[in-house]
Design a protein that fits this description.
Shape: globular
Strand content: 15-25%
Structural class: alpha/beta
CATH superfamily: Leucine Aminopeptidase, subunit E, domain 1
Number of domains: 1
Distance between the termini: 34 Å
Radius of gyration: 16 Å
CATH topology: Leucine Aminopeptidase, subunit E, domain 1
Strand order of the largest sheet: 1-6-5-2-4-3
CATH architecture: 3-Layer(aba) Sandwich
Helix content: 25-40%
Length: 171
């Protein structure tokens, strides 16, 4: 975890939560689109609309990263509509499309779902920690700019690590 904007980290691939239309939205999506230039939106538009959990990868154009993964996260309503599985799918599919880039060694994610999609921070962090523990990359980052969200992600990562070390060995 790093306390930084995703635009400021050194990563081959950056992952953002996109809206289904893949157009620049508010928040981080809009910031990434603006920094990448209008070519990014022009490139991804033909792939729209994406379903929740689906992910695509594009060139990063004017960004320092080489690629951008666009994945659609679910809105959190009440936790009874399959939202957790959909958020897991967004992380899983983002990693899957990224793994197709054989030259990539590093990947950075935003804290998906914790903004306009209204996810309880602890739950979003727990799902992220679990899914990103499966990353095949040499360096996998979560970029956070808010102290409260950073604390939730640190706690979730520690909890996941404790569960991993507590598993009994199978003889």
């Amino acid at each position: 975890m790093v306390k930084a904007s995703i635009l400021d980290v050194d990563a081959d691939i950056i992952v953002m939560s996109a809206n289904p239309s893949l157009l620049a939205g508010s928040g981080v999506s809009g910031v990434i689109h603006k920094a990448a230039g209008r070519e990014l939106e022009e490139y991804v538009k033909p792939f729209a609309p994406l379903d929740i959990g689906q992910a695509i990868i594009s060139p990063a154009f004017k960004l320092a990263a080489k690629y951008v993964v666009h994945t659609v996260c679910p809105r959190f309503y009440d936790g009874l509509r399959g939202e957790a599985e959909q958020l897991r799918a967004a992380y899983f599919n983002a990693l899957a499309v990224s793994a197709e880039v054989s030259s990539a060694r590093s990947i950075a994610f935003v804290a998906m779902g914790t903004g306009v999609y209204k996810w309880p921070t602890d739950l979003a962090a727990s799902i992220a920690a679990e899914e990103l523990s499966k990353s095949p990359f040499n360096k996998t980052l979560i970029c956070v700019v808010d102290n409260r969200i950073m604390q939730a992600f640190e706690t979730a990562d520690l909890r996941r690590a404790k569960l991993e070390t507590a598993k009994p060995e199978i003889q």
